[in-house]
Amino acid sequence: MQHHGWTLLFHDCLIVQLRKLHDAVQRAHRRDPTEFASNANVKLFHALSRLMLEIIPEDPSRDEYRQGNTLGPRYRHWRRAKIGRRFRLFFRYDARAKVIVYAWVNDQSTLRSSKSRTDPYRVFA
């Protein structure tokens, strides 16, 4: 898939998460077709879609995506985009090849909680 001149690739781990989220969105739509847009899963799915297809491909090198030594020096090449306060999307990019690889996004069972064993940074590492 191409967006903003970048080739976008999706790791299987991310695809599994997106499918689960998409299923939750469809369930929300079936339950309440008029008010489903206010469902948390729907909002997260739309935010992720916009982030992956529009915002990150505009400039994947933004300073806000750097995570420093959060995962340790061996993983400094991984970037993360924040979605709200508790969700993180992990990706890498190669500027020469113009490729972005989206690897993983956390879910409700791995919400951001510093020093927790289910913290998305720990789970991703």
- Can you list the strand order of the major beta sheet? 1-2-5-4-3
How much beta, percentage-wise?
Answer: 15-25%
Helix proportion range: 25-40%
Class by SSE composition = alpha+beta
Overall pLDDT: 83
Give the topology string: H per helix, E per strand.
EEHHEEEH
The biggest beta sheet is recorded as:
5 strands, mixed
DSSP strand tally: 5
Count of individual helical segments: 3
Low-confidence stretches: none
From the alpha-carbon coordinates, what is the Rg to the nearest angstrom?
15 Å
Measured between the Cα atoms of the first and last residue, the distance is 26 Å
Q: What do you see in this structure?
A:
This protein has about 120 residues and is of the alpha+beta class. Helix content is about 35%, strand content about 20%. It has 3 helices and 5 strands; from the N terminus they run E-E-H-H-E-E-E-H. A 5-stranded mixed sheet has the order 1-2-5-4-3. Helix 1 packs across helix 2. The radius of gyration is 15 Å and the shape is globular. The mean pLDDT is about 85.
Key features of this structure:
125 residues; alpha+beta; 5-stranded mixed β-sheet; 3 helices; 5 strands
